[in-house]
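Bug #77: duplicate submission created two jobs. Keeping one. Sequence:
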Amino acid sequence: MAQTPRDRIRTAHGLYLVLTGPRVPHADLARAAVERRVPVIQLREKTADDAELLCLAGDLWLATRGTGTLFIVNDRPDVAAAVGADGVHVGSRDAGTAASRLAVGPEAIVGVSVTSAEEAVEARAAGADYVGAGPVFPTATKSDAAPPIGLAGLAEIVASVPDLPVVAIGGIDATNAPAVARAGAPLLAVVSAVCHAADPVGALDALLAAVRAGAAHAAPWAVEGGASVQDIDGQANHEGLRYCPRCASGLTEGDVREHRRLFCPRCGYIVYMAPAPVTCVLVEKDGAVLLVRRKYAPRAGLWCIPAGFIEPGESPSESAAREVREETGLDVAITGVFDTWATGEDPRTPVVCIAFTGEVIGGALSPGDDADAAAFFAEAELPGDIAFRTHRGALERYFRTGRRTRP
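Kept job's structure:
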């Protein structure tokens, strides 16, 4: 049984080419895309009159007919139905999903533009076959474009509809396409990066290579159900410092303000690796100290003191108590300050840690958040696989100094 367009969009991966005022004839660029196995082409010409739009749509239907490339018409379900296109893409202010479905038929594709995870869930409930998420970055293609959602916003949308294809759109070009592909969207929509390039076919080839490069390295940041916001933030800002957190272009290293720093040659963003504030808590019970086993990288599977980054608006002591509660299920009262240290052991960012002491005042021991085990250990029973050298040193000092604290 032949697959319907709706079946095919569910497994499509790669480039989603939007044709808007290309510098070469629409049909020529469409044929070049078909030859390169671009999975989806969309016709978007908002200023064309009906006769011109029908003519262009007919040409693209002929260019894609019987190939592996799907043909979508933007905004106009009536035009899509008239030429037999594979589907239609509508925005939040365009024809509704249900009305579009009636126009194009039960086997055709209906895609919907969204700007948030909530809108994506609503679009899925309304019967959308895919969602176009964006704009990811600032774009001049649409004068009424919403504020950019960034890589983190894209990742949230991908995670919110794991059973629905997501097409990333907005400001995507060959420099940032790998980072966008790593965010988990199976399809990347490009408009001006190809259509308005001096050499549209050459730009198409460059983008195809960039998308393949990003998809080939997506696995390290993939998690069940799609990439998480934390994964994307970590990849963009810390782990290897590959891409600009503002525009996702590749970072370069050079002399900036008398220091060797990473910076973005596209938007000028400068990466300042200031240490991140972290807290940990030495919680003692019956002569034993509470440790957790890390569930995630870095140092997954190794033991450490309950610890974590201070969130905006938190005091250090509030952060410390929260981390213990989230990782172990225990409520603790912070009783004093034990020590402070700075370290570069975390591969994501250098940290300055404030180590507190605490005592259990409630709750039940149950590992959670980013810990898969939690237990109390006496000095002679400390695990050999402590995750961080600074944590092992703190434990040794804690037992050696008789649990000294400063109020």
